Amino acid sequence: MTPPVNTAAAPGDRRTDRCAVVARALGESVLGSAPETCDAWLLVEHPGPWPAYDAPPGMPAEVADFLDRLPAYRIRPQLIRRPGARRPVPPHQVYVAFSGGSRGGEPWAEQREIADLRELFDLDLDAVSRGVRPGWGTAHHEPVLLVCTHGKREPCCAQFGRPTVRALHAAYGDPVWETTHVGGDRYAANLVALPHGTYHGLVTEPVAAEVGAACLRGEVDLAHYRGRVGVPSAVQAAEWFARSHTGIVAIDAVRPLSHVDGIDGGAVVDLDAGGRLLQVTVRTTSTGCPRLTSCSQGAVTDPHEFVLDDLREIDGLGDL
After folding, report:
1. Cβ(148)–Cβ(157) under 8 Å?
2. Which helix (DSSP H) or strand (DSSP E) does residue 92 occupy?
3. pTM of the predicted protein model
4. Total domains, the chain
5. Half-sphere exposure of 303 toward its Cβ, with a 13 Å CA cutoff?
């Protein structure tokens, strides 16, 4: 079973050797590639400019230090801004969200508008890291869509992210934000939906509205679905194969229950897929095609891909 990929180059490709262009040309699979290292998010409105790695000009040093501490709590800090004409700040729009990830639990989000970035210091990071609503803001029940446009960090994110976010914003308005780096340079444009932390990659302007609509419905678009943040990559891949087999796209309808790590990055994963208990075995394989996988880092590697070894029902109904 081979996962579908988006191999069409986006209109306006300017560099045929850039990592995201190469990924499209090779038909690279995106599944199992969402970051594993966070379970929660802090989104802080900042209109930019956004340096590649350092804090933006004018951000107080103590705020930058606070944001730098967040990964230790498995909280991912992101700067966000509106596409197009950017409103002046302050006030800053801020979201804190919990995706579940390695801890499990129900995803949630809170929103707050702040006049001073130092108000962030009142946020209970321990509670957020445990998946406990901190009550720092008001409950936010609508999805938030983030598109990486961080061109200073990765040129492909600007080339592909900016037309994608413009299309999404034109279609859906307020839920859509530009954001700083989310990981996966060669998968630009990258679209993240919160609070669930679902990642979609290789999203181009022509398909942006379609993929965004799925996210707003609480679904995934399997042709572009990278996986869910905080979950081991092999489990993400197994989830993709379970969804592909059953046709289930609702985010909460497929849940990993347990997994046993295999050799070379693979795993045997038990999942609840709409009430069906599935066991999915995946392994990794080399593509055999070293290529540029990050323009900003100049990294040329031979990335692995996940393949399906076995998929069976384990509730007594026999192999699928």
Report:
1. yes
2. strand 92-98
3. 0.92
4. 2
5. 23
